[in-house]
Amino acid sequence: MVVLATVLLGGGGFASTFLGFWSPGAMLSGPAKPPPSGAHLSVEFVEVPTIEIIVPGGRARSMVMSATIETDSHHKGQVTHLMPRVSDAFTTFLSGVDPAAYDKRGVLEVIRAELVTRSRFVLGEDPVKDLLITEFRFK
Length: 139
Hints:
With 139 residues, this protein is of the alpha+beta class. It is built from five helices and three strands. 42% of the residues lie in helices and 24% in strands. It has a three-stranded antiparallel beta sheet.
């Protein structure tokens, strides 16, 4: 009976560590260290120049958009240096949007997601934390 209990408990312990439910090494290393409290202080915002595009179609209107790229202080110089490429990528995308799409619900979220993707394509994954659209209007 004791041998059976030992085998069952030992097998259960092995299976639980093998499946990743817990780790003996993690128990010996102590508690996880919290992230440094000053991590949020290095957030920087870089303005993207305002983009104004004439929307093709029957109505004579133009779309104006301003955005800001959220980065950190380490990458701010790189983002600022490559801003002409970012601005070009944004302008190219926005000029290709179908005019009927602007009238649909949720278009701003789609545009924002596409601009984040394009900014990460130009700048890389690490520099771009987020993209904030600060102005989006038609005139």
